[in-house]
Amino acid sequence: MVGTYQQGILIAGRRNSYTITVPSDGFVSIYNDSAFDSYGRLYDGDELLAEDDDANGDEDFYLYAFLEAGTYTLEVSAYDDYECGYYELFYSFTEGAVGDFDEITLNTYVIDSMRENEIDIFELVITEGVTVDIYSVSGYDLYAEIYTINDVLVEYNDDGGSGSNFLFDNLYLEAGTYYIYVEEYFSSPVDYYELHVYTVIGAIPPEEPVEMYFNSSVTGTL
Question: pTM here?
Answer without folding.
Answer: 0.64
